[in-house]
User: Which sequence fits this backbone?
């Protein structure tokens, strides 16, 4: 007996097996987050689950008065936005350069991807030493440089995926119609890559928001959010940290739900539009066929 029928899903035993594996993976992924979300509703100071009848928003209310936490969140938001704003166009430029290359393409892509495998502690330490040599003081600017080096390989990869959907024949057609290189890029390439550019921006922002190792060596007076939360956990965390984590999870789940709803609604409207278009074509063909069928009859009547 071979495993081919099970792997390809042609047997009744294959689907339950893979369904159970997928469910187990989802449980492992989301169980810690859901536990933290439910534990944040505990009104006590010790982390743990309580009965639903004892759920309280006490620590969510206290979260509003935690100024240091919101200052760290503001610092991380500034660094994340700066990283995303820089990484997206640089990643797009690198993807365009990769597409224009012929011989050194593989080497160029290997050099870019190698940055993913550099440990964050080594990269952050080395960058901090170099910045001190050129007398650059630690600040949100130095953290942005470190996060940019971390996010660039991912931005380039996402841009390459989006650029692969842009056919050279499409750009050549725009050039044949009289569009210059810049006009063809703005009117043809960028609209076709809109989704990948948005993904690259969000990806770079999230990578920066969650980055800890590089920021540890490059941060100035104001901590980023991961550094603040790590320090708060080591010094005996206030339950407001758990409430903040629960709020982030709730906002994340809501955002993902809204995106999925918008995508489903767009697909349903697209299907409805295509269905109406097919009905319109069928009616046109029917009317043409009726007109053609009535031709001989009317001709016979005239005779």
Assistant:
């Amino acid at each position: 007996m071979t495993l081919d029928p099970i792997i390809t899903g042609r047997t009744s035993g294959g689907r339950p097996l893979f369904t159970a594996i997928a469910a187990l993976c989802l449980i492992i992924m989301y169980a810690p987050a859901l536990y933290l979300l439910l534990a944040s509703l505990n009104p006590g100071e010790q982390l743990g689950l309580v009965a639903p009848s004892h759920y309280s928003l006490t620590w969510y209310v206290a979260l509003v008065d935690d100024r240091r936490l919101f200052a760290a969140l503001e610092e991380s938001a500034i660094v994340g936005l700066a990283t995303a704003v820089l990484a997206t166009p640089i990643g797009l430029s690198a993807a365009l350069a990769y597409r224009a290359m012929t011989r050194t393409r593989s080497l160029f892509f290997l050099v870019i991807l190698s940055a993913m495998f550099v440990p964050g502690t080594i990269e952050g330490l080395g960058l901090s030493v170099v910045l001190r040599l050129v007398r650059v003081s630690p600040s949100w600017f130095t953290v942005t440089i470190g996060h940019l080096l971390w996010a660039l390989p991912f931005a380039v990869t996402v841009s390459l995926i989006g650029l692969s959907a842009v056919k050279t024949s499409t750009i050549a057609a725009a050039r044949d119609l009289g569009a210059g290189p810049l006009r063809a890029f703005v009117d043809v390439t960028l609209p076709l890559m809109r989704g990948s550019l948005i993904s690259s921006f969000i990806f770079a922002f999230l990578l920066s928001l969650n980055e800890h190792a590089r920021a540890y060596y490059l941060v100035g007076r104001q901590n980023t959010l991961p550094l603040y939360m790590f320090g708060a956990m080591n010094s005996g965390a206030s339950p407001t940290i758990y409430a903040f984590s629960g709020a982030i999870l709730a906002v994340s789940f809501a955002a993902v739900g809204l995106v999925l709803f918008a995508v489903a609604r767009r697909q349903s409207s697209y299907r409805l539009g295509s269905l109406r278009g097919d009905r319109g074509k069928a009616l046109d063909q029917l009317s043409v066929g009726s007109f053609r069928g009535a031709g001989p009859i009317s001709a016979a009547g005239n005779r």
Notes: DSSP finds 13 helices and no strands in the chain. Residues 294-303 have pLDDT under 50 and may be disordered. Residues 96 and 163 are 8 Å apart (CA to CA). The radius of gyration is 28 Å.
